[in-house]
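Q: Second attempt. The first request was missing the SMILES, so the protein and magnesium ion are both included now.
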Amino acid sequence: MWRRVTSLSPVMSTSKPTSLDQAASGFKIWRSSFSTETPTMVKDGTTSFKERNPFITFVLGGPGSGKGTQCQKIVETFGFKHLSAGELLRREIESNSEHWSQMLNTIKEGRIVPSEVTVRLIQQEMESSDNNKFLIDGFPRTEENRIAFEQLLGLEPNVVLFFDCPEEEMVKRVLNRNQGRVDDNIDTVKKRLKVFEILNLPVIDYYSKRGKLCKINAVGTEDEIFEKVRPIFSACGMMSHYFAF
Ligand SMILES: Nc1ncnc2c1ncn2[C@@H]1O[C@H](COP(=O)(O)OP(=O)(O)O)[C@@H](O)[C@H]1O
Ligand SMILES: O=c1ccn([C@@H]2O[C@H](COP(=O)(O)OP(=O)(O)O)[C@@H](O)[C@H]2O)c(=O)[nH]1
Ligand SMILES: [Mg+2]
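A: Got both inputs this time. The predicted holo structure:
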């Protein structure tokens, strides 16, 4: 059984009709096949996952800032379940799922896939995991993503990491990543940096105001950066009687 929830944020209908306005919504036909109106749907029974009291970390930062690299280290040291939103989307594309070509195109263009798709994939992974500590890497990318997640799951992150990295360094890292990704090229990375600034920074600001943001200078070696990350989770471990940590 499905019920309606209140509408998502106005990011989609911002009054600035720039090309970046299209970044999160430039897929009108595709979008309409997910939902024909602003309100979205939520499945009854999701509260059972909320009752598990999961520990949720959102991991944010521009393209190439080192999110995935640091997540791997956090997994090894603190035993989290790592969910990369981009990886989940790439997996959907590879499995030729419905709308795979629109998703591929969206990623090639550095735009943002509709929240309905991404939140569903993240939710499925979380609900089917035995682990109760989650690193959600590269999500939420927009205020609309953030609100969709919080409304559909009824949960907020406990901590938000932000890997702060100069653009020049991010571009260098992306162009050297060498993983055969369709978006690791100079044209897409330039678009992604704009999308990051316009759509993702407001999310980062939001969590900063909520006192949940841990901003980490992402320049240095991988190990140096991890030494700044480690105390954040060591401190959470000490609060394990509050969280299912
Ligand atoms: N501290 C670092 N210094 C130099 N290169 C790094 C560092 N951290 C990650 N990298 C490299 O930069 C590229 C992008 O890192 P990645 O973790 O995929 O970033 P993100 O997930 O934020 O896009 C990868 O090739 C990775 O090996
Ligand atoms: O919540 C998300 C996460 C990723 N993406 C898309 O997937 C791409 C790659 O994301 P990923 O996090 O893998 O990139 P990274 O920042 O790690 O380079 C993004 O540019 C978007 O096009 C998206 O639409 N929504
Ligand atoms: Mg990544």
